[in-house]
Design a protein that fits this description.
294 residues; alpha/beta; six-stranded mixed β-sheet; four-stranded antiparallel β-sheet; 11 helices; binds adenosine-5'-triphosphate; ABC-2 type transport system ATP-binding protein; nucleotide-binding; ABC_transporter-like_ATP-bd
């Protein structure tokens, strides 16, 4: 039920603004992908092209092997949930779900009802009367219950409060395990969702900066923890770039950038230091900071 995505030399311009600049990548599908990037890096533009909401200026986009633009066979199998959920303001929430049940081939009505209850969706209320959290809850319900082979959440759950966001993450993982599909999440809440991502793409000013498995990406850095002087000696002795540090009494944890060699790992162990993969957010901040050599 999952579908692959292939992007070659994709360009998208809005007048003089270059939103996407020769992007190329392949998603095999059947995974949860994280799409990260600073404000204005092109995430929404990319996702809009994948879901055929916009036509590319140049390059090739294949979703399940076909150009998605004005291609109903593909678009009915792609569900993009945007920040401000696409629903008529005058419609009642219940009618929006009804409409989705008619448009979405894999719609699961029982699951939609269960999600509506879980997220306290007021079915009789008009969309215009929903709070920001209510709009996000509607988006999440539409996105999950659609079970579209390519499901995309573009920051659409950020209006939910923390308990509801965690409920969404749990639902996503549980439903994805039972009904595997290709899922892309764009987010600024990196640490919260990092564990969901099997692969991560980072956009930077319209270009693809990183496309890697999450575990591989995390090994681009390390958190070195132990007795403070030993940590400092290890970091300085190996000429490691420190991204940040935390101290607690005589103990220190320094986040470093750069993959460690086996010899360095052995040296750390011999010095009584613990090594852990680095947090995705720390890496993201480092990689997308202006002035950092790439
Ligand atoms: N409709 C539009 N008209 C003109 N420029 C646009 C339009 N939509 C986006 N842009 C520009 O294209 C670039 C990419 O924007 P996009 O919304 O895709 O980025 P984003 O990564 O989703 O940003 P954010 O994280 O802030 O939502 C930005 O420079 C933005 O100003």
């Amino acid at each position: 039920m999952s579908i692959p995505v292939s992007v070659r030399d994709l360009r998208l311009h809005y007048g003089d603004t270059v939103a996407l600049d020769n992007l190329s990548f392949e998603l095999a599908g059947g995974k949860i992908y994280g799409l990260l990037g600073r404000n204005g890096s092109g995430k929404t533009s990319l996702l809009s092209v994948l879901a055929a909401f916009r036509r590319a200026t140049g390059g090739t986009v294949l979703v399940d092997g076909e150009d998605p633009f004005e291609n109903a066979r593909v678009t009915r199998r792609v569900c993009l949930i945007r920040d401000n959920v696409d629903a008529e303001d005058a419609d009642r929430v219940g009618s929006v779900l009804d409409l989705a049940s008619r448009l979405r081939p894999n719609w699961d009505a029982d699951y939609a009802s269960r999600l509506a209850k879980q997220f306290d969706l007021p079915l009789r209320k008009r969309v215009s009367g929903l709070s920001r959290g209510g709009r996000s809850a509607l988006g999440v319900t539409l996105g999950l219950a659609s079970r579209a082979p390519l499901t995309i959440f573009d920051e659409s759950y950020l209006g939910l409060d923390a308990p509801s966001r965690y409920a969404f993450y749990q639902e996503l993982i549980a439903d994805y395990a039972e009904h595997p599909r290709t899922i892309i999440l764009s987010t600024h809440l990196i640490e919260e969702v990092a564990n969901l991502f099997e692969e991560v793409l980072i956009l930077d000013r319209g270009r693809l900066l990183v496309h890697e498995e999450t575990d591989t990406l995390r090994r681009r850095g390390a958190t070195v923890t132990g007795e403070a002087t030993a940590v400092d000696a290890f970091v300085a002795g190996n000429d490691l770039e420190a991204l940040g540090e935390k101290r607690l009494g005589g103990t220190k944890a320094t986040t470093t950038y750069g993959a460690l060699t086996e010899a360095q790992r052995r040296e750390a162990a011999a010095a009584g230091l613990d090594l852990a993969p680095v947090g995705l957010q720390d890496l993201f901040i480092h990689l997308t900071a202006s002035g950092v050599p790439r």
